[in-house]
Predict the structure.
Amino acid sequence: YFDAWAHLGVLYIQAGRFTDAESALQKAAALKSNNEIENHLGVAYLNQNKFSEAEAQFRKSIRLNGNFFLPHFNLGVVLQHKRDFSAAEQSYIRALSLNPEYIPALLNLAIVQTELGKKEQAADNLRRFIQQAPPQMQQQIADARQRLAALESEL
């Protein structure tokens, strides 16, 4: 039943039904733990603002497979919510080292670098994000342009 619970959990995440996703993914993880299930369960927790549970799941996913970029990115999101910007920065850097094409990590990296006072690095990452982001990320591109303009006025 592992595959059924895992698939159902992912479908619930896609539908925005995070409590149902949590339940299905917990059942899948009880049958067979792997890095993808643990990451999906972390996403279900994260979307319910259960940050401690989400952090634990992402760390578990990373322990199971440290070369999977997504739990590093997701851990960065949790740490950013917890205002642990230095640790979030490291998570985003690791995610990008594993998958340089995953540009949402560039935007988040720039945001935490701004919080850390690393304005030059943040501006460089915002420029890279704006250049590389696909058109369907128009809202994030607009946000990045505003952030970049604010940073450039301070540099």
